[in-house]
Probable phosphoglycerate mutase (Yoonia tamlensis), 186 residues
Amino acid sequence: MTYPEVYILRHGQTAWNLEGRMQGELNSALTEQGKQEAARQGAILAQCDLTGFAFFTSPQGRAVQTAGIACAPLAEIIRTDDRLREIGVGDWSGLLRDTLPLPDAPDPFMAQYEIAPNGEGIAAVRTRCSSFLHDLKGPAVIVTHGVTGRTLREILAGPEAIKGTTIHGGQGCVYHLKNGSQNLLT
């Protein structure tokens, strides 16, 4: 399937990111560094021709806060879409990541999401990301989260788009995806 051109932003650093907590569907505010990362994303986007682009964000506070800093000067309307929320981590919400079991897997941190009790799981995230992209009618700027953004990028540009990336990265970055290819803008 051919998808419209998109820019994907992960929210800036939060207090819980700094502490190493699993956020999932819970929220914590952006740190000062997170606010600076969002401002940097806005500066990157300001250099792009976004004529005709729609703006979407996860409804979770950290993404909305990032969208407000990075996109509000550029967007007439920023719409929230529940399908862009972060993966649910069930009973592990709010817990310190380093106190939780870490599977023996090629990417143990992503595998951790699959074993979270009452968690959502990667397949469910993929389903809602695919639904969002299927409904996308034109080019868009998307503000989302680590796992959700990674999943969107994999759908749009294939497994090479996430090769070598980790769940801990991506804050302050802007990914440009067009015609099945991905570029990291800095």
Remarks:
- The chain has a mean pLDDT of 94.
- Helices lie at 15-19, 32-46, 61-70, 108-115, 122-135, 146-157.
